[in-house]
Amino acid sequence: MPADAGPSPALPALGIGMDSCVIPLRHGGLSLVQTTDFFYPLVEDPYMMGRIACANVLSDLYAMGITECDNMLMLLSVSQSMSEEEREKITPLMIKGFRDAAEEGGTAVTGGQTVVNPWIIIGGVATVVCQPNEFIMPDSAVVGDVLVLTKPLGTQVAVNAHQWLDNPERWNKVKMVVSREEVELAYQEAMFNMATLNRTAAGLMHTFNAHAATDITGFGILGHSQNLARQQRNEVSFVIHNLPIIAKMAAISKASGRFGLLQGTSAETSGGLLICLPREQAARFCSEIKSSKYGEGHQAWIVGIVEKGNRTARIIDKPRVIEVLPRGTTATALAPDNSNASSESSS
Hints:
The chain is α+β, with helices and mostly antiparallel strands. It has nine helices and twelve strands. 32% of the residues lie in helices and 26% in strands.
């Protein structure tokens, strides 16, 4: 949306519809960038749940290429159905996880709101004041750009499959395509990925001249790709050819008849960044993010292209599935079970 209808040059602004709002301030060429998000528990470990919630909030800033956050607030709802003992054990762990992830992101939690509610809820608000060169507006993709994804898909499938281990009716539908051990490994991998900050990818967006980006969360890779495509100034469309998926999750999605993982509609939590990069930069971005200097666990795959079009996004009929192996496993331990897949270690 235009920041100013008047003749004077205006700072860019962004309102409802993308990952963060960008509001030009009254003072000195600065912009306020802010985002909020919250959700319900999806993993059993309250500390990891706190980390995931914080990573998910910060990810909306990282999708703008912003690497610094000035302030965070925490939103916390404690369930009224929890006993006093459960509250005293679980709540501090969730708070610690959230605060530790904020500290890893170079920021701090300075306030928020805690309520009692029927459900446990955790989330927050992330705020930063930026100069124009600190963020990348998500609207400048050009024909010939390459789409890069920085985390594998399949988190919702992994979390649900892990819950099904204790639900015979659900488990019986998928046990022919996956073992209990494979589900446990996928769940641990999903939890690790969801708790990983997208901060490194955000910094590399500047290094490699990214043209636009979004993070992949509740609408799945297709929904967020379509949303990003609609924001583009040029007449372009996104075409996705490759789907990096946590190993065996595609098979579970097919066997269960749920999720729509191969169709790109399966929800993700604290997913990776989908970045539009110049063609000549994409491979270098993918190589650089895996460098040990950024720590363990960062990954990236080329998943598609930007072509001339009418601001839409689609996945081809038979996308190539890249089976992303959980850390510490080998290709022989988790062999792909369809001819349109390839294996790749996430270590």
